[in-house]
Amino acid sequence: MSQQTDNLAALTVLYDGACPLCLREVNGLQRRDRARHGDQSRLAFVDIDRADYNPEAHAGISYAEAMGRIHAITADGEVLRDVAVFRRAYALVGLGWLYAPTRWPLVRQLADLAYGLWAAGRLRLTGRPTLETLCQSRGGSCAPR
User: Has residue 25 got a pLDDT over 50?
Assistant: First the structure.
């Protein structure tokens, strides 16, 4: 999958290209975006697992931060995290109703909790090395800057 960083995109989603479930989600969003918007895609995707991922080009979001939780950057530079990324991405491809209930107070808390649990176990559940191992394989550590 190519590293798309289209400045015209309404939302740039940072994703882990080595995560099979993440790829499935991205592929579905890309298909829906193309079907709805043709060549005027509203979504761009950046594979943070690529060796050339550059945090400075993506709101300073480090590899470790991006691997720990999903992030996206709006066209005006706002950084979204967690369920807010899915809400915005799905709205942009015409499926906002799927995530609309996650704006309701109780549902929002439950969705955030569920996503937090998923994010905490995502690498293990998808058969990937630990975050620290992944960071070390890139020549660094996952310690904050």
Answer: yes
